[in-house]
Amino acid sequence: MRTIGPGTCEQATRRISLFEHMEFSGVAVVNPAYxxxxxxxxxxxxxxxxxxxxxxxxxxxSEQPYVARDLxxxxxxxxxxxxxxRGYGSILLEDREIAFNVFRAMEKAGVPIYAQSFxxxxxxxxLFVVGERVxxxxxxxxxxxxxxxxxxxGGTAVAKEYPELEDWAVKAVGCLGLEYAGxxxxxxxxxxxxxxxxxxxxxxxxKRATGINVASEVVEHALNLARK
Length: 228
Prior knowledge:
Number of strands: 9
Shape: globular
Strand order of the largest sheet: 7-6-5-8-9
Distance between the termini: 19 Å
Strand content: 15-25%
Number of helices: 8
Largest sheet: 5 strands, antiparallel
Helix content: 25-40%
CATH topology of the largest domain: D-amino Acid Aminotransferase, Chain A, domain 1
Order of helices and strands: HHHEHEEHEEEEHEEHH
Structural class: alpha+beta
CATH class of the largest domain: Alpha Beta
């Protein structure tokens, strides 16, 4: 399952419930419906990871611009769409008043406010987990003058192994109930943080960088689940 498609809240609810019903009937749904929904929700992902002792950036959510303004951390911070992907719509901010105006626009559009501390100066890494093992990993380098390391935003993928993070990546995927996912880390002098766990990750850039056929790993894992 890669997406449930566009639609109303009722349509999305019905589709997720349909996938769960398939699971109850013995169908191997990969990723499982509610685990997928949890990982799609950046807010839910953050508190599930934190609950398991996995480091995450300072994070908050609100629907009130005045409250959100007062919750902003010192220094730079990032507004993110709570259901966004590929870095689209993420905004790097530092001025509280500019942020307040952005938050008011979100409120008028009926969009929740979700923000995190900006982890400046770290190395960005993606570890791709299938089952209980990391099958491939890479560093992601932002373009010159940019801050987003997403390949879709001009970032560069470079093959690199992170043995010290592999157990953490597997733990992050497991605690969310997923069968496979891309786990995004920021590694700094003060330690590492998990920025996101992507339950519908792309793997083309990872395959080009590493030469590993990630899709075949996912398919083989799904077949093994179906045979059980």
